Amino acid sequence: MDATNKVTGTPISRIDGIAKVTGKAPYSMDHPVKNAAHAILFKSTVAAGTIREIDSTAAEKAPGVLAVITHKNAPKLNTKGGLRGGALLQSPDIEFYGQHIGIVVAETFEQARYASRLINVTYDKKEAKIDFEKVASQARLPKDKERADAKRGDVQSALTQATYKVEEVYETPIEHHHPLEPHAAIAEWNGDSVTLYSSAQIVNGAQGAAAATLNLKPEQVRIVSPYIGGGFGSKGGQWANLALAAVAAKHINRPVKLALTRQQMVNSVGMRQHNRQKISLAATSDGKLTALSHETVTHGAIENEFVEPCGDCSKIMYDTPNSLITYRVVPMNLIIPTYTRGPGKSTGSFAMESAIDELAYKLKMDPIAFRLKNEPARDPSNGKPWSSRTTVQCLSEGAKAFGWDKRKAEPRQNEQGNYWIGYGVSAGTYPAHQRPTSAVVKLKRTGDTVTATVELAAADLGTGTYTILTQTAADALGLSVQNVTVKIGDSNLPPAAGSVGSVGAASYANAVNDACEKITQELLSKSGKQFFVRPTASQLMRSEKLTEFQTRVDSKAPESAEEYSAHSFNANFAEVAVNKSTGMIRVNRFLAVTGAGKILNPKTARSQIIGGNVWGIGMALTEESVVDPRWGNFVTRSFADYHVPANLDIGHLDAIFINETDEHVNTLGVKGIGEVGIVGVAAAVANAVFNATGKRVRELPITPDKVL
Amino acid sequence: MRPFTYTRAKDATSASQSLANNPNARFLAGGTNLLDLMKEDVERPTSLVDIAELGLSDVKSITSGSNKGGISLGGLGKNTDAANHPLVRQHYPLLTQAILAGASGQIRNMATNGGNLMQRTRCPYFYEVAMPCNKRTPETGCGAKEGINRMHAIFGWSEQCVAVYPSDMAVALAALDAVIHVRNASGQERSIPIADFHRLPGNQPDRDTNLMHGELITSIELPQNRFAEKSYYLKVRDRASYAFALVSVAAALETEGNIIKKARIAMGGVAHKPWRALKAEQALIGKEATEANFRAAANAEMADAKPLSHNAFKVELGNRSIVLALQMALNGGKA
Ligand SMILES: Cc1cc2nc3c(=O)[nH]c(=O)nc-3n(C[C@H](O)[C@H](O)[C@H](O)COP(=O)(O)OP(=O)(O)OC[C@H]3O[C@@H](n4cnc5c(N)ncnc54)[C@H](O)[C@@H]3O)c2cc1C
Questions:
Q1: Which parts form a coiled-coil structure per UniProt (chain B) (predicted)?
Q2: Which positions ≥6 away from A454 have C-beta within 8 Å?
Q3: Ligand 1 centroid to B107 CA: how many Å?
Q4: Average pLDDT over residues A53-64
C-alpha cells in the first residue's frame, strides 16, 4: 500500500520499540557468537608510576583461565590510532588510577573475574597530580587552536567603568556518562579480519580507530552496532577496551566477550571534566550589556588534552561590544575527559546563565526582559546572519505557557507550608551542522507492492534514528512506513556521520532524503516520460514494471549553509520547592521550549528534550564524581554513590517546539535536538533555587548541605 | 567472585550448624547486599547457606511473654511485606515509613528483615578492595577519616573507623525498642535489645554487630506502645529516593494534653549504629510540645557531635531534622 499522508512530522512510535521491550534487539553482548570466551580487564591501583612486576602465577592456574595478557606479552599496537585514553598495555607506565594493565581470559565471566583477583601487582610510584585544587594554578593555554583566547573590545575597562556588574566563579564537578549499557565488545576473528560487536555512536569512526590501533586496514575491521544502550558522548570516540577485546580473541584464537563493569566505567571511557569558570558581566543601568567574559580553567590527561568549550554559548548568546573567552588547562593523572552531552554548552551555560540571572537581579530587571534587551541581530562571534534564531520566541512563548508572571521578583516571597517555591529561567543554544553521509536506497516490487530498504552506517542511541529515517524515506518514496526497512549500525553499510554533536538527524535524514530524491529522478529519466504531477518512486516502480532498482548518494551540507550561523535555541523554565528545614530540593515543574527547525517526529523529539532536561536536573542537583585527592581513585563508582535523578526527583516535564522553518541550515531544515535539551537546564534550576531561598549556589550539584 | 559452595538449608538448626562448622560460611537471605559485596570481592565466603525457604517470615501478634500486645516480624520476612502488613501500618507506622524510605521497590521485595539488620556500611573505602579499610581488612588503616567523608559519622566513631551503618529500618526499630531474637547451632535462643545489637567501631570495626557467627535472626519483636498516633520517619538525602541518608530521624511522641509523656528519637546516617538520641529524649520528658522545646532537645543531642572534615553540615542538619521530625510526629506523622 502506498502512503496517502505524509508521516514526517507526526508522532509515530519507535519502529524498534517492540523489539526492545521484548528483548529481541541485540546490544553488544547479546549477539549470538558461538564458542566465545570471557575476558575481564584489570586495572592499576596507583595514579602514577611504573609497574615493577605483575605476578599472575596463581591466576594462570585458576580454573577455566585461558590467558593473562599484560604489557609483557601484548602485541604491538598503535597508540596513536585514535582510541582514547591510552591504556593499551604497551608499556609499564601508569598515568592514572584505574588504567587497564592487563586482561584475563577464561571460559566464564566469573572465572575471569576471580582469576583477576589473584593477580599481584607491584609498582614504583611517582608523585601524581590528582588534586585539582593544588594544580589549577599551573593551567596554561590549550594546544587546540579553537580554544585560543577570543577577544573583542576591552572587557577590563568596561568592567572598571560599570556600576552594575557580576564577577563570580562557578564550578561544575566531574560527571560520568554512565550509559545503562556499559562499554562492551565481542571480538571474532576470521583470518586477518575481525568483527567487533560493540556499540558505537560513530560506526565508521570506531572502525577507523580500531583498525589503526590494531595495525589493520579499515576494511579488515567490521563494527556491528545495531542498537546502543546509551552513550552520551562516551561511545563517540572509542576506548582501549575495543582493541583489547580483539587482542584477547587473537591471543586465544577464539571469539572473546569483554565488558566493563559499572565500577570500571569511571576510569575507562572518559568523563566530563571539572570546570572552574569565572564570569564577568557589566551592564548599563537600563540593562544593556557592556562587557562579557568567560574564563575557564580545567584539566586534561598527562599526554593529551581535552577541553570542553564552556564559552561556546557565551560567544553567541548576547550582544555586547566587549567580550573575552579563554581556556586554561592543566595535565592531571586522571583519565582524559571527553565529549559529554552538550559538551561545554551544558556546563558553560550553567555559569553564564546563572551570572545573567545575578546581574538581572542587581539591575532589578526581569531576567527575561534582560535577555531580550541584549538579543544580538547577528552572530556576535563572526558577524554572520543567523540561519534562524528563536531565542525571543522560546522565552516569550515559554513565559506564557509556564505562568512566569506569577514569579515573585524577590526571593523568599513564595511560601507553601514548609517549602520555599522559586521560579528560574535560562536560555541556551547548540550548533546545527550536517556532516557528510552516504546512503543507499533499494526498491523492490512484488506484484503491486513496492518496498524499500535504506542502508547507511548510522547509529541509533535509543534516540529514534530508525524511526525518523523510516518516516523520511516513506515520504520521499511515496510508501507507507510498513514498507520501509532501515538498516544502520554496521560498517559494511555506506559511511555515515555519527550520532554526536547533534549532527545525526540532520546528516542522516538529509542523506536519506537525497537518496530517495535521486532514485526518483533516476526512475523518471529511465521512464523517459513527462509528467504533469510528479509520480513517486513507488508509482514509477509499478508503471515501469521494474522489480528491483537501487541507487546511492554521497550527501553533504549545502555550500550556502556556511554563510549562516546555524543553531538550535531553547529556553528553560523551572519551578522548585526547597524544604526550609532540610534543604532538600524538588523540581516541581520544568518546561523546555526549543527551536530546532523541522521536527521530524514530535514524540521521539520530545523524549530527547525531556531526557536532556532530566540529565540537566541531575547536573543541577545530584550528579558528582568525586576523586580521592590522595590516591586518584573515584569514590563514587556505582549508582548507589553516583546519583542520577530517580523518578521521584522529577516533577512534571513539558516540552514545546517552536514552529520554525529554517531555509538555510540544510535541505530538510532540520537542526539538532540531541544536546540542546541539557543546555541551560542546571542554570534554570539554580536560578529557581535562588528565587526560592535567596541562596546563590555557584558550585554544582546543589545538594541539601549547600542550601541549609 | 570467588568460588563457593551453595546449599539450601532445610531447617534453622541445620542452617546454623553449617555456619558453625565453617567460619567463612554465610547465610544467604535476599542476597541484595551479600552478593554485591561478593562481586566486589569485599565479602569472600567459601560457602553460602540459603535460608530463603526456612519460613520464619510471618508478622504476628504477640499473645504472651514480656512483649505481649506487641508484634513479631519474621527474621526472613521480606521488607515489603513487613512495611505493608496491616498490623505494622496500624500500630507501627514509623516502621512502615522507615522501610519504605529505603532502597527501591525491587530491592525491598527481595530484602529480608534479618538481612536488613545485617547489611554492611556503604563507605566507599570499604567497597574498594584496593583502599585501606580496617572494617574490611583489619590493620590496614581507615581511608575515610582523612579522605572523602561527607557521608560519614559524627557520633561514636573511632580512630579506626568513621563509617555509618546504612539501614533505615533499624533506625525505626531503635526508636521502637525492638528486640532481636536469634538462635544458634545448638538450638539455643537468646534475645538482644536493638540498642545492643549493633556496635560502635572502637578497636574492632570489623565487627558490626554482637551476633555470633552461626546465630540466625529468627524474629524481631516490637513491644506495644502508644506512639502510633504521633510518629514520623524523616530521611534527608541527596535525591528523593534510592539514596542513603545524610541524616535520618525516627521520632515518636506520647503526649497528655500538650505535655510530652514519652519521647523516642533515633538517628540514622550519623553513626556506626542506629543512634538513639537519649539526651534529646530526656530533654523532652514532661515538657510542652513546642518548637522551642524541640530545639532545646535537638541542641542537647547535637552538642556532642564530632564532625569530620567534610560532614560538619550534619550537625546543623541533624539539629533541624530532629525538630522537623518531632513537629511532623506531633502533627500525626503525615508527610
Ligand atoms: C542500591 C541499593 C540501595 C539501597 N538503599 C537502601 C536504603 O536507602 N536504606 C536501607 O535501609 N537499605 C538500603 N539498601 C540495603 C538493603 O536494605 C539491604 O541490601 C537488604 O535489606 C539486605 O537484605 P537481604 O535479605 O538481601 O540480605 P543478604 O544480602 O542476603 O544478607 C546480608 C547479610 O545478612 C546476613 N543475614 C541475612 N539474613 C540473616 C539472618 N536471618 N540471620 C543472620 N544473618 C543474616 C547474611 O549472611 C549477610 O551477611 C540498599 C541496597 C541497594 C543494593
A1: none
A2: A439, A440, A441, A442, A469, A470, A473, A484, A485, A486, A487, A512, A515
A3: 9
A4: 98
pLDDT at residue B334, as a whole number: 72
Q: How far is the CA of B167 from the centre of ligand 1 (A)?
A: 8
Determine how many CB atoms are found less than 10 A away from the CB of residue A120. 12
What pLDDT digit, counting tens, does each position of A89-146 carry?
999 999 999 999 999 999 999 999 999 999 999 999 999 999 999 999 999 999 999 9
Which CATH architecture does the domain made up of A31-127+180-230+235-265 adopt?
A: 2-Layer Sandwich (3.30)
Q: Give yes or no for B130 touching A (CB within 8 A).
A: yes
Task: List CB contacts (< 8 A) between B234 and chain A.
Answer: 582
Report yes or no: A584 at the B interface, CB cutoff 8 Å: yes
Residue A222's identity, in one-letter code, is R
B335 confidence band (pLDDT: 50, 70, 90): low
Query: Is A197's Cβ below 8 Å from some Cβ in B?
Result: no
Q: Tell whether B309 lies on the interface with A, counting CB pairs under 8 A.
A: no
Q: Do A63 and B324 touch (CB under 8 A)?
A: no
Burial status of residue B306 (CB atoms within 10 A of its CB: 0-12, 13-18, 19 or more): exposed
Buried b vs exposed e over A190-222: b needs ≥16 C-beta within 10 Å? eeeebbbbbbbbbbbbbbbbbbbbbebebebbb
A635/B124 CB distance under 8 A: yes
The C-alpha of B221 sits at a distance from chain A's nearest C-alpha, in angstroms, of 30
| ipTM exceeding cut-off 0.85 for this assembly | yes
Task: State whether A635 and B148 contact (CB < 8 Å).
Answer: yes
Mean pLDDT of the residues in chain A: 97
Q: What is the pLDDT of residues B241-289, one digit of tens each?
A: 999 999 999 999 999 999 999 999 999 999 999 999 999 999 999 999 9
Q: Is the peptide bond before A142 cis (omega within 30 degrees of 0)?
A: no
B320 touches chain A (CB under 8 A): yes
pLDDT value at residue A1:
55
Give the predicted TM-score (pTM) of the model: 0.97
- C-alpha R_g of chain A: 26
- Which DSSP letter does residue A28 get? G
CA dist., res. B276 & res. B268, Å (int)? 9
Q: What is the DSSP string of B103-138?
A: S-HHHHHH-BHHHHHHPPP--HHHH-TTS-BTTTST
Query: Which residues in chain A are classed under CATH 3.30.365.10?
Result: 17-25+434-556, 31-127+180-230+235-265, 275-433+563-707
Of the residues B6, B18, B22, B33, which should be mutated to test ligand 1's pocket, given the most ligand atoms within 8 Å of the CB?
Answer: B33
The minimal CB distance from B324 to the residues A582, A630, A631 is found for A582
pLDDT tens track for B30-70:
999 999 999 999 999 999 999 999 999 999 999 998 889 99
Type of residue found at A539: Q
Fold held by A17-25+434-556: Aldehyde Oxidoreductase; domain 4 (3.30.365)
pLDDT by residue (tens digit) across A19-31? 999 999 999 999 9
What distance in Å separates residue A701's CA from the closest CA in chain B? 10
Q: Quote the domain boundaries for residue B287.
A: 231-330
**Cross-chain Cβ contact A643/B239 below 8 Å:** yes
Cell of A642: 553516583
Number of Cβ atoms within 10 Å of the Cβ of B10:
10
Catalytic residues of A: 675
CA distances from A217 to A81, A211, A213 (A): 11, 6, 10
Residue A392's pLDDT is 98
Kindly determine whether residue A630 and residue B127, on different chains, have CB atoms separated by under 8 Å. Answer: no
User: Topology of domain A275-433+563-707, per CATH?
Assistant: Aldehyde Oxidoreductase; domain 4 (3.30.365)
Between A and B, how many CB-CB pairs are < 8 A?
89
* B274 pocket-lining for ligand 1 (C-beta < 6 Å): no
pLDDT at A615: 98
